[in-house]
């Protein structure tokens, strides 16, 4: 049960903070106010998404074969998000999910993503972009929140997409592709 407590806290904070975000957005042209407006618009205008994390791939060149064998790469999990295609046709999303990390510990994650989309959202489409997130891991600071920005990409058809993020690193850490699917409902 103690493993799930950080997940519940992150999800609750994410959902509570976005519902009242409109109250702190000013109508100025500052980066903070524009970001606040994007988050608010995504939450209020977006549709519901089911997130299903399912696989992590550790680059074989960054780890010994013994270390690779010790990792869990099927990292099933579950999450919820809200997303929309903005006036430019690009994707914006807010999400909260939890999954099993490489050491079989629960890893919660909340964030905002943006992707530039090629193709039509209601047909075959692909995107590249970034995600600004907060996660927490048992093996790094015993669930101390870790902020980050990661590159993301997707291929989708209508409301279903296959997504990936790349976690950069060095020899023996990072260098991971994280895969999840989303289903709009």
TrEMBL record:
One GO cellular component term noted in the UniProt record for this chain: cell outer membrane
Principal location: membrane
Pfam families in the cross-refs: PagP (PF07017)
EC numbers on record: 2.3.1.251
GO molecular function: acyltransferase activity
Keywords: Acyltransferase, Cell outer membrane, Membrane, Signal, Transferase
Keyword Membrane: yes
Localization, UniProt: Cell outer membrane
EC class: transferase
Residue ranges of the TM segments: none
Taxonomy, superkingdom: Bacteria
Matches recorded under InterPro entries: LipidA_acyl_PagP (IPR009746), OMP/PagP_B-barrel (IPR011250)
Family: Belongs to the lipid A palmitoyltransferase family.
Entries under NCBIfam families matching the protein: PRK11045.1
Name assigned to this protein: Lipid IVA palmitoyltransferase
Source organism (scientific name): Novimethylophilus kurashikiensis
Gene: pagP
């Amino acid at each position: 049960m103690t493993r799930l407590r950080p997940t519940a806290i992150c999800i609750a904070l994410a959902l509570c903070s976005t519902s009242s975000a409109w109250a702190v957005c000013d109508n100025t042209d500052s980066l903070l106010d524009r970001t606040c407006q994007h988050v608010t618009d995504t939450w209020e205008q977006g549709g519901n998404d089911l997130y299903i994390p399912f696989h992590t791939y550790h680059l074989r060149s960054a780890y010994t074969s013994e270390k690779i064998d010790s990792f869990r790469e099927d990292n099933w999990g579950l999450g919820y998000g809200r997303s929309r295609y903005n006036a430019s046709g690009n994707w914006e999303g807010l999400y909260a999910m939890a999954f099993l990390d490489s050491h079989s510990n629960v890893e919660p994650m909340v964030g905002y993503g943006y992707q530039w989309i090629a193709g039509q959202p209601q047909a075959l489409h692909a995107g590249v972009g970034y995600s600004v997130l907060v996660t927490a891991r048992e093996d790094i600071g015993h669930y101390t929140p870790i902020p980050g920005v990661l590159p993301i990409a997707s291929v989708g058809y209508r409301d279903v997409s296959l997504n990936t993020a790349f976690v950069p690193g060095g020899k023996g850490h990072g260098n991971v592709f994280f895969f999840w699917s989303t289903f709009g409902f």
